[in-house]
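Bit of a strange request maybe. I'm writing a small parser for structure token strings and I need a real example to test against, not something I typed by hand. Could someone generate the tokens for this chain?
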Amino acid sequence: MTILQDFTLSELTDYLTANYSVKPFVAKQIFEWLVKSADFDDMTNISKQLRQTLAENCIAVAANIAETYTSPIDGTQKFLFRLADGNVVEGVLMKYKYGNTLCVSSQVGCRMGCKFCASTLDGLVRNLSAGEILSQVLSVNALGNGKERYVTNIVLMGSGEPLDNYDNVIKFLRLVTCVEGINISPRNISLSTCGIAPKMRELANSEFQLNLTLSLHNADNGERKQIMPVTNAYSVEEAVAACRYYFEKTGRRIIVEYTLINGQNDTHAHALKLASLLRGMSSHVNIIALNPVKETGLKGTSEANVKRFLGYLNSLGISATRRRTMGQDIEGACGQLRRRYLTEKHD
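Reply from user aminoacidic:
Good idea to test on real output. This should exercise your parser:
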């Protein structure tokens, strides 16, 4: 079935005109409903016959909120989105003083194989379409009061490697930033990659000046290969060179994510190598305490080591802070998103 949220306004108008003889003003009305995450039954200014016909052949809301988990500790919300084919992805809404940030998924599962991440445990099932990524944003945004945008910032850091689904992610960016839609500025969108260097450069040459985040976690190629197999294809140096290129093209400072794993990447020697790798680059390091995923067998470093490692970097002239952990109690923190809950309940 055709996912209507995959279309821009002009594409939707062309599709509905060609296939259902819909007039342009009606297509615009339908587009406005889609931005509100409304299903066909809710489109009250559209004829009942047209709504029935579209419902038989098309999908209005590509990612429906099936369940919501709310952290009693920090108010973080995790959403389970059910897709039309029965697959499930997760998203997380984090509330800050400056607004609400939604973490969205770009794939069902992931094939990158990062050892600390739950999303990759079952491998890659399939890519999400642009509309399925967008629908996560629109479904959560619809929870607001309708007077102002509820989702103010987006991070492509859920399940999946965004640059492994490059074309659909670019189309999603086009949809989520368009003035006819939710109109989120690219500067309020962040994309996290494990280091697919050619696609990082391609993104730098696109029209979108996003905030780019490199999921690094070790500056040594040999050691990084043990936890991030992508290093076999693209070295640490290639990934960082792509980051430097991205900054040159966009002027956007690079964020480097570094999760501390006990005994594997948390020593003074590791800090020295990281500082040497990043020196001279406009970057900021987010130090992350490892969030538990029972299947990985990995253990986070001690609290004392987190502070010590952060001190090493700061003394070496590297901008670095510890990233606040949110939603860990509902398995909604960094590295914990997966496709488990509904599949366990209903499969």
